[in-house]
Design brief:
By secondary structure, the protein is of the alpha+beta class. It has 5 helices and 7 strands; from the N terminus they run H-E-E-E-E-E-H-E-H-E-H-H.
Length: about 190
Amino acid sequence: MVPRNRQSRCLVDDHGCRGPVPADAPIPLCEGHLSLAAEWGDARYGITDALPSACVLCGSRLGVRLPSGWVCAVCEWRHGDIPDDELPPPRVDVVYYLRYADRVKIGTSAHPRQRLAAIWHEELLAFERGDRALERRRHAEFAAERFPRTEWFQASDRLLAHVAEVAAGVEDPWSLHARWVSEAVARRG
């Protein structure tokens, strides 16, 4: 529904524009000035679209076309750049949170795909960037929920709230991991 006080003429008054504003326009600009604003936004912030080919780092097909070229929308690797195959992959340690029934496992790995493939679980809840030191802090933080002599914890409200905070804004933990790996590759040059 269009507000009653909505302007029907373009706000731009250069060279006497004041053209009609489309009923569904988000701001009171004529179609010509809306097009100019959209082109400016595309040039400044990029256009999300399918990459010309899959990202060599994470395999995603989703990219952002910027004036300077394409970047992967998942890991932000510049399309066309080739990682140096002679260098070993960078080490990116993560603390992972896995759910199985009413339990949550808090563990760590530098190779989470291999590690998680070896653990029976129903859902990967989140990744948190960190190594054994962070894992030990999380084990201490949730010691009251811990099943003795394991890395499994009762899925308490407190633990699930922590996991929700770690996972906030992340739809897929694997895409976050791919971005961390991409950033590590880019940092080493």
